[in-house]
ABC transporter permease subunit (Shewanella algicola), 271 residues
Amino acid sequence: MKKLSFSKVMLWFGLLFLYAPMFILVIYSFNESKLVTVWSGFSPKWYGELFKDTQILEAVWTSLRIAFYSSTMAVIIGTMAAFVMTRFRRSWAKLTLSNMITAPLVMPEVITGLSLLLLFVEMADLLGWPAERGMLTVWIAHSTFCAAYVAVVVSSRLRELDLSIEEAAMDLGATRFKTFFLITVPMISPALIAGWFLSFSLSLDDLVIASFASGPGSTTLPMVVFSSVRLGVSPKINALATIIILSVSLVAFLSWYLARRSERKAKEAME
């Protein structure tokens, strides 16, 4: 019998520490009792109660829309910022932009949310826009801090590109605009996809900034969950968390399967 090494023991301990709470949560989502800490029998009734809760369903739809729009805008802004950070010559303007782009990465979310709230209030007083806080202001706020993450991801990919490929395209008559969309964008597409999914998850999970930037009719899912947990954990929240865990697991498994299949096809083509 092989002896377990210290590294393997720590690995299993780390996995148990990370996933045991999720496993317990999934089990208790089928608890028949209203008390989440008291097991009284197996029942899937809380999933039915979850889909009858219009407040949670509306919050889910609102969060998904905001996350989609925010991640798309963040990819556009973050890609332009990354292009400036990596391709423009070194100057005080480039250094200032780089610092401004990466500032949200280290700044507390409370400070970011409060500053955006003050900005929206001041703009409403001076310009009359936005007239009220809602989905639009949450979208702007999420796009702002998600763009910083996209810029970091895309800039790391841009630094690895071979500039001779772009130079060859321009030598053959392609404009810079055409070279960017036909040569550069396909080469950095993995970073763009990664940045989009990262921004989507950050926007979907955000509570602090959304609390400052939101208004009536724009309550996101984390805000609904947080407000309900303050009054006592409902078994419907366990059911909701189980569905989210299952969805994330399916997406992760599908991504792994597609990557493995493409890698296998690449190996077969080389042989």
Observations:
- The mean pLDDT is 88.
- The radius of gyration is 23 Å.
